[in-house]
Design goal:
Elements lengths: L4 E6 L2 E6 L13 H14 L5 E6 L23 H9 L2 H9 L5 E5 L2 E3 L1 H7 L3 E5 L3 E3 L13 H9 L1 H10 L2 E3 H6 L5 E3 L4 H13 L3 H13 L5 H16 L2 H11 L10
Parallel strand pairs: 2-3, 3-4, 4-6, 5-7, 6-9
Antiparallel strand pairs: 1-2, 7-8
Helix pairs in contact: 1-3, 4-5, 5-6, 9-10
């Protein structure tokens, strides 16, 4: 039975809920890593899934790493090389699992997203914030660096200058500032957060699954490749898309002035 992550599926939409509110949905010192990896593996092999929503139970989205658990690294017999491997085979596995999902992901940020919790939102494609949400790239406050990949993720969400400001100060920003800097795409009343996230997930899920996965891959590849390389990849993906039954259905529905009915996604 899951101890940390609730996995719920409603048609093509999966909702993952971090469910240890009593310890602020921390991501280390518990089973979070294994459960995230297992859930993402399940999503990857289930072609019926088109969208994933991620949120937290209770008043906090996630407070990130378990600071109390970090005291074990004070011991002289734990060498830096051992700690390095702990990160590589620990929380960094969440980063790879969530970021590399091939379906669209929505973070519904219900409260504070701190440290690795802030970075977890950046692993998702879209971020919607409750008015009660706050964000902090706060590793510097406890004398460590963003060991989960935040130095790669955050600048891609807010730009280098804002990412540097957040990382060097560790200061907390509220939902409105997060909206202003592009960390989130919208801020909604707290009680409407999940309804807004579900409505967005539903609009996304109405579109063809295979083409959506290819579109997400193109967006990701476009962040680090050349234009010529992306154009070549786009041409190849487009050739595949033109041969899908979903494309044929969409074109015929347009011509016949009706809503498309997509199957076998």
């Amino acid at each position: 039975m899951s101890e940390f992550l609730l996995y719920e599926q409603d048609g093509p939409v999966v909702t993952l809920t971090m469910n240890q509110p009593d310890i602020r949905n921390v991501l280390t010192g518990n089973t979070a890593v294994e459960e995230f990896v297992d859930a993402c593996g399940r999503i990857t092999t289930d072609r019926s899934v088109k969208v994933v929503m991620l949120t937290g139970a209770g008043p906090v989205f996630s407070s990130g790493g378990n600071v109390k658990d970090m005291r074990r690294f004070f011991e002289d017999d734990i060498a830096p090389a051992v700690i390095k491997e702990w990160y590589r085979h620990g929380i960094q596995r969440i980063t790879r699992a969530v970021y590399n999902l091939d379906v669209p992901t929505i973070a519904a940020v219900n409260g504070p997203a701190i440290g690795a919790g802030c970075d977890l939102t950046c692993m998702c494609d879209i971020r919607i914030a409750s008015e009660k949400a706050t964000f902090a790239e706060s590793f510097i406050k406890v004398g460590i660096v963003p060991g989960d990949g935040g130095a790669w993720l955050l600048p891609r969400a807010v730009g280098m200058s804002k990412a540097a400001e957040m990382s060097f100060t560790g200061d907390t920003i509220d939902a409105n500032e997060a909206l202003a800097c592009g960390l989130v795409s919208r801020v909604v009343p707290h009680d409407e957060l999940m309804n807004e996230a579900r409505a967005l997930a539903s609009r996304i899920a109405r579109n063809p699954g295979p083409t959506m996965r290819m579109t997400k891959r193109l967006l990701r590849e476009g962040q680090h490749t050349t234009l010529d390389t992306l154009l070549e990849l786009s041409a190849g993906y487009q050739a595949i898309a033109h041969k899908t039954p979903q494309h044929k259905e969409a074109v015929m529905a347009f011509i016949e002035k009706r809503k498309p009915k997509f199957t076998d996604d």
